[in-house]
UniProtKB/TrEMBL annotation:
EC main group: oxidoreductase
Alphabetical list of SUPFAM superfamilies matching this protein: NAD(P)-binding Rossmann-fold domains
This protein's name: Glucose 1-dehydrogenase
The keyword NADP is assigned to this record: no
Coiled coil: none
One GO molecular-function entry: glucose 1-dehydrogenase [NAD(P)+] activity
Enzyme Commission number, as recorded: 1.1.1.47
PANTHER family reported in the protein's UniProt record: EG:BACR7A4.14 PROTEIN-RELATED (PTHR43975:SF2), ZGC:101858 (PTHR43975)
Length: 252
């Protein structure tokens, strides 16, 4: 097993990629704290993995809150004795608006979940790693939208910020043996579209030709496989990387 005796916190675990990451990590022997707002979904996930070699504990909460980010890291340490891995996966879309139509409300909402949450979680995690001398691993889930314009202004800005936070954290803590990497998924079949609402027609019209260049969508399991590699000791010399998992979309 590739994560035996490792303790992980995974956000956005109630659906899509986060759900698949918790499943794979638990099957690879990890003790996992599963975080999202929908408690019943987390409990169903934990119950479905009762026979897995690892263990799943649930921590319901909204990751745009400082208390939840700090609480989930403290909970992992209290529940399982340490922390080795943080996966900042939870995220929401904007409505594909160009900057001229981008609202302050949408900015605050998307930045709180896609940028502030990961920042607060990374802060708590690196301080926990340093307190215990753990050579921890952080995996952030950004997007190809942080590298090219395939969503609205606010979403793309939020994911570019997360890529920047990844590289900065990788560099700042490399002497401590703490690794921070990032996955940039392309189009993946999940529930993400439900966070978009009605797309802005002008923005969607500009983005449609970019979406038309994408290959067939990938699966949440394909993202989980990348997260497993980056989180595990197999990636011991990978730090500050941005790994597109997009079927070649941004290669074009
Ligand atoms: N699907 C794609 O094509 C795609 C492409 C590129 C990047 N991504 C990124 O991949 C990540 C995972 O998304 P997904 O596609 O798997 O979407 P998803 O199926 O909608 O899952 C999103 C997860 O985030 C959680 N979440 C959302 N807001 C939250 C909050 N305030 N507090 C705590 N948890 C919250 C949701 O749980 P609750 O609602 O229960 O809180 C859910 O578990 C996101 O960061 C997304 O931006 C997705």
């Amino acid at each position: 097993m590739r994560l035996e005796n490792k303790v992980a916190v995974v956000t956005g675990a109630s659906s899509g990629m986060g759900h698949a990451i918790v499943e794979l990590f638990a099957r690879e022997g990890a003790k996992v704290v599963a975080v999202a707002r929908r408690k019943e979904r987390l409990e169903e996930l934990a119950a479905s993995l009762a026979d897995a070699p690892g263990e799943v504990a649930v921590y319901p909460g909204d990751i745009s809150s400082r208390e939840v980010n700090e609480g989930m890291i403290d909970f992992a340490v209290k529940q399982f004795g340490t922390l080795d891995i943080l996966v900042n996966n939870a995220g929401i879309m904007d409505d594909m608006s160009p900057v001229g139509d981008a609202t302050d409300e949408k900015y605050e909402q998307v930045m709180a979940v896609n940028v502030y949450g990961p920042l607060a979680a990374m802060r708590a995690a690196v301080n926990a790693f340093k307190a215990s001398g753990t050579k921890g691993s952080i995996v952030n889930v950004a997007s190809v939208g942080g590298m090219r314009s395939c969503a609205g202004a606010i979403y793309c800005a939020s994911k570019a910020a997360l890529i920047s936070l990844t590289k900065n954290t990788a560099y700042m803590y490399m002497a401590d043996g703490i690794r921070t990497n990032c996955i940039a998924p392309g189009g993946i079949v999940t529930e993400i579209a439900t966070s978009m609402g009605v797309p802005n027609p002008a923005g969607y019209g500009r983005i449609k030709p970019v979406l038309d260049c994408a290959p067939a969508p990938g699966s949440a399991e394909e993202i989980a496989a990348a997260a497993l590699f980056l989180a595990s000791d197999e990636a011991s010399y990978v730090n500050g990387a941005v790994l597109p998992v997009d079927g070649g979309w941004i290669a074009g």
